[in-house]
Amino acid sequence: VKARYQQLLPTAKKALAVPANAAAELGMIYRYGALGVAENDEEAFKWFSLAAKGGNLAALYEGGMMALTGQGTAADVLLGESWLESAADKGHPRAQYTLGCLYSGLVNDVKWTANLTVSTKWYIAAKANGDFRADSWLKDNYKKMGPDQIAEAQAAALPFVAKNKGALQAVQEKSIWLELIVSEAELAAKKPIKAQPARVLK
């Protein structure tokens, strides 16, 4: 644990020098009730909103999901889709997968106009960038589409299929800063303390 703590410390300090990153980490702590802090979706959304204005990908994804489903804020599908698309445009695989689901009509209790071509574009991007949940839904979409639709979706996905390099750190199940805090707590308590994993759309 001590070695991991020392390894993470420089990266965490550098990341938290950016206000948007610090706000995103506070959002994560409130969202998932980490480090003994009670879950509080309203507080989480407040911090994600601040971080999203600074372009933090994790905040755009988490806040977008909350706005989409009305958690911690009044449901705002347009805002949720907008934030998710901002994250997806920058290569966030889970945001890409979620947009694939949204445009397929698969997000529970969310009304959105289905568009198989757009859905397939985002599924292709999500799969290429490492979110393999998209694979089965992608195959399902292909069965419903004609050759021209498939070709259009594949062409539209091309700009996004290798755009994940800047997003990898943002989509880790545990953020570097959160892992650092957990490592510090483990050192102090001499016993394992585990943060809750990020929730994913199923």
Summarize the structure in words.
With 202 residues, the protein is mainly alpha-helical. Helices cover 64% and strands 0% of the residues. Helix 6 (93-104) runs antiparallel to helix 7 and helix 7 (116-128) runs antiparallel to helix 8. The longest helix has 15 residues, at 2-16. The protein is elongated, with a radius of gyration of 18 Å.
- Identify the overall geometry: elongated
Estimated helix fraction = 55-70%
Mean pLDDT: 76
Gap between N and C termini, in Å? 32 Å
Question: DSSP helix count?
Answer: 10
| Secondary-structure element order, N to C | HHHHHHHHHH
Based on the model shown, name its key terms.
mainly alpha; 202 residues; 10 helices; disordered C terminus
Summarize the structure.
The protein has ten helices and no strands. With 202 residues, the protein is mainly α.
